[in-house]
Amino acid sequence: MNSYKEFVLVVEDDSQIRNFICYSLKQEGFGYFTAGTAQGALGILVSEQIDLMLLDLGLPDFDGMEVIKKVREWSEMPIIVISARDQDKDKAAALDIGADDYLTKPFSTTELMARIRVAIRHLYKQRGGNTQAVLSVGGLQIDLSKHLVYLDESELHLTPMEYNLLVLFFKNIGKVLTTGYIIKEIWGVGYGTDTQALRALMAGLRRKIEKNPAKPRYIITEIGVGYRLKDE
User: Fold this and answer.
1) CATH top-level class for 134-229?
2) Are the C-beta atoms of residues 201 and 212 closer than 8 Å to each other?
3) Dihedral sign (CA 68, 104, 80, 16)
4) If you ran DSSP here, which 8-state letter would residue 100 be given?
5) This prediction's pTM
6) Are 165 and 202 in contact (CB under 8 A)?
7) How far apart are CA 23 and CA 51, in angstroms?
């Protein structure tokens, strides 16, 4: 019987990168399966118990974007894209169709493992139902049952829109949310793609939760893609 608690599927056609990732996973105590093609990955996903997938987009049989779409038809497992595609539009597209995070090659072992630990942590929260009424990150705390927000134990007074935006981030701690996704969730699908209102709303929220809005501690801008509430 194996001693691993979590298993990661590494989908990468470059054997050197695949071996590097697998070595890093083993050093950190993760079990792993590997696939060099999209079809191979889907075969493993239906036959093995996988907790998280690391997915390269440039696969030899079909694009990794299609893998994300197929997996999201039946599973909410964390998917971290690891790709040489560094264009903002590629990152946003992968996140919009269901990826949880996006790491651009080349990347460090430290960063990769940090992203994996965040994803696994939130996987366990999902499996446990995450029914907590009070959620916190550092000194920022939100009481969902009372609709109250605190910073370093002092109550903050947010507008309804600012509160809804903060709740959205708290429900997706550590996950990059694209501007398109945020606009859809806050204003609805008929609002369009104008980001001016979102930028104004974000600026107002940051003025209240950040000691230095120009160097935010909590909500980080992922340039060209969206925003992320840091998991501390």
Assistant:
1) mainly alpha
2) no
3) positive
4) S
5) 0.69
6) yes
7) 18
Taking the C-alpha atoms of residue 69 and residue 50, their distance in angstroms, rounded to an integer, is 17
The domain ranges of the chain are: 7-127, 134-229
Give the residue from 198, 161, 167, 162 showing the smallest Cα distance to 180.
198
Per-residue confidence band for 1, with pLDDT thresholds at 50, 70 and 90: very low
Closest listed residue to residue 208, CA positions, set 145, 155, 167: 155
Give the dihedral sign, CA 142/146/147/148: negative
Q: What is the mean pLDDT of residues 58-80?
A: 90
Give the pair of three-digit tokens for residue 2: 């194996």
CATH topology of domain 7-127: Rossmann fold (3.40.50)
Residue 107 has pLDDT above 60, yes or no: yes
Adjacency order of strands within the sheet including 101-104: 31-35, 7-11, 52-55, 79-83, 101-104
